[in-house]
Amino acid sequence: MELSLGLQLFDRSTRRVHLSDVGKDLFPLVDKILLDLGSVLDEAASLKALKKGLVRIAAPQLLSSTVLPEVIAQFQRQYPDIQVQLHDCGVEQVANKVLASEVDFGIGPDRDSSADITATLLFESPFHLVFPPNHPLAQQPRITWQCLQEQSLILLQGQFTKRLSGDLDSTEYGPELNLRPAYLVSFMSTALSMVNSGLGLTVCMPYARPLVDLYGLQMRQLDSPAVYRRFYVYERSARTLSPAAEHFKHALFHFINQHS
Fold first, then answer.
1. Contact call for residues 144 and 224 (beta carbons, < 8 A)
2. Average pLDDT for consecutive 10-residue bins of the chain (260 residues)?
3. If residue 202 lies in a helix (H) or strand (E), which one and from where to where?
4. Cβ atoms within 10 Å of 53's Cβ, excluding its own
């Protein structure tokens, strides 16, 4: 340090070494640096040991009200000192929150994304039909998309219905499958409530089952053709997750694999 500063910090004799006057002046500053460094090392150790940290996730409203609460509960039983913030939002807002660094990562269906976002497949699920238990379709051994042609449908507005129609058009049954919804709503909880009131049927992903059961409705997979929707974990490219966020992402994939 003396060589670096070009100052004599210690007075030396054959009997002892003690701080010079300059050394005494600089000692409080050096001592503070060492204390700050100690705090940094303690903080880093706590983050690495998952004794401290924050995880921020963005997910659509339906995923946020069905799958994620259980994942968060399991994670916090294992890591009670980690704070988890769930940003429930519209599907189209997930990528924006990731890009703006408002969250560590987002979860959502396949969407056109920029080069600044990395997408990792989380799961793939087929579409299911939701209907009242006394509906005539409940008696059929299998339910196809053709069965919906004469039904009153309640679908989600925006990309949900547009992409679903595009998926159906691309199949061999395309010309026969023309979705004409009687109602377009913003949230699946609204659609389920309308089904419960006898206003029609709706189409959703199987992870909505907790809400479907809550309304006393039935759910069956649609086939001929079987249409699937992929869901991804979205992250900022070239950005390293914190230890807490990385462990939560691992817990999320583990939960999905266990329940798939």
1. yes
2. 83 86 82 73 61 88 94 94 93 92 94 84 95 93 89 91 84 73 93 96 95 95 90 92 91 92
3. strand 201-204
4. 21
